[in-house]
Amino acid sequence: MQPENTIDLTKFQIWTLAIRPKTLPAAGAGVIAGSALAFYDGYFHLLPALATLIGALLLQIGSNLANDVFDYLRGAESKERLGPLRVTQAGLLTPKEVQAGMWLTFFLSALIGIYLITVAGWAILLIGLTAILAAIAYTGPISDKGGLADIFVFLYFGVAAVVGTYYVQALRTSPAAWWMSVPIGLLIVNILVVNNLRDIDMDKLAGKITTAVRFGVIVTRKEYLVLLVISYLILPVLMWANIIPVWTLVVWLSIPFAWKVALVVFSELGRPLNQALAGTGKIALLYSVLFLVGISIAKLF
After folding, report:
1. Residue 4 lies in a domain
2. Are 147 and 211 in contact (CB under 8 A)?
3. Continuous H helices in 9-84
4. Which range has highest mean pLDDT (78-82, 96-100, 152-156, 270-274)?
């Protein structure tokens, strides 16, 4: 039976719910940071940068659809869930429809990957295939094992996104790209931290062993703060080491917003954390955009 407030939704609106637009800014953060560094080093190329961004967004959408349908098929969803509406569980789309959308999305991302292979070589194939496999596996064996999901998110949304984006434009890597993948990856891991904190009670009932379930609310909140602080404090260290320019410190203009989101994480539980979940994605996007601004100023002056 469909929830009353979803009865009049069009197919387009239902699919929009399924792809979860609020999660997409996180997918673009690493691409923006990697492209900024490529621009600073004189390697920026628009088409590979756009292709990487589109590919990252498609992988995120595919992962969202996989998460929606496979959690439903595993019986890990219930009507009492605290997060955004899941279209399969709500009966808005059938499992076959969502799986078809998932495979179509991954197919389109593979087409983007073929183009990037022609630009940057076969190393991109390995990144693309493992990213798709990780997106599919995340719902089951990865998300159920505490800490493993955090590592995968860090590797693909941090390291692969920043370093891979730089590589497809420069055809090489740089120390700055590797180092900047750390704060970007940690900020996006924090999205998972908030998600696990919100769902801690439901995950316990479903038998999912997330880091929040394993270590509890207090430790999970501390994890969020530690990852957030490292993401900002690493910048002056990298500037001192002459790895990134001083102007990138404009990223610190996002600290008041990050602090506001952190206060929600430390004061709320359950459904109110949806606000912090969206806010944490915005932190990652704002961080990367301000990093691009700082890089651009440094390049000009």
Report:
1. no
2. yes
3. 11-19, 24-40, 46-73
4. 96-100
Tell me which residue range forms the domain holding 176: 9-300
DSSP reduced 3-state for 145: strand
pLDDT digits (tens, 9 = 90+) for 112-138: 999 999 999 988 888 888 777 766 665
Residues 230-258 pLDDT 10s: 999 999 999 999 999 999 999 999 999 99
Beta bridge partners of 145: 209
Establish if 232 belongs to a structural domain: yes
Determine, yes or no, domain membership for 1.
Answer: no
For residue 291, how many other CB atoms are within 10 A of its CB? Answer: 26
Q: Are 148 and 134 in contact (CB under 8 A)?
A: no
- State pLDDT tens for residues 133-182: 766 665 555 555 556 778 888 988 899 999 999 999 999 999 999 999 99
Is 142 in contact with 66 (CB distance < 8 Å)? no
User: In this structure, what are the phi and psi dihedrals at residue 209, rounded to the nearest 5 degrees?
Assistant: -100, 75
At 247, give phi and psi (nearest 5°): -60, -20
- Number of domains the chain is built from: 1
Evaluated on CA atoms 43, 46, 50, 51, the torsion sign reads negative
pTM for this structure? 0.90
> Residue 177's CB: how many other CB atoms inside 10 A?
24
User: Is residue 294 included in any domain, yes or no?
Assistant: yes
